[in-house]
Specification:
This protein is an alpha+beta fold and 140 residues long. The chain is built from three helices and three strands, in the order αβββαα. The protein has a three-stranded antiparallel beta sheet with strand order 2-1-3, covered by helices on one side.
Amino acid sequence: MKPSSLLLMALLAGSASAQDVYKCVQDGQTSYSATPCTGGQLQILEIPSPPPAIDKGAATRQERVASQMAAARKQQEQREDQARERGARQREAHDKHCAQLRLEQKWAAQDAVGAGDKTRDAAQLKARRAGERLAVECLN
């Protein structure tokens, strides 16, 4: 690399604001400087200022995080809805089971009342066990 191009890169990297760079050609030698030439051919080069730094990654990162948080909230809501639905189904099944046990206990009590002398003890035992099962499974 030529020393003059090294000087140009140093000048470009040295400052972020717009400035004038002077290109001097003297005795076939080209040099660049921040000050005007004392002799020789002069050419003024305008170095444009760089555009303002915009952190596009930050905006997309914020959008990505917001999107992830929204997705997480949506998943949480879906899990809560599923849990509520599952609980409702379980309560419905439990209520149905308890209704069935109440009927069985009622029928066993009616059988015990109408039972003859030989089957009365067995019918009363069946009615008492149906009542106990109802109490254990449904009245807690």
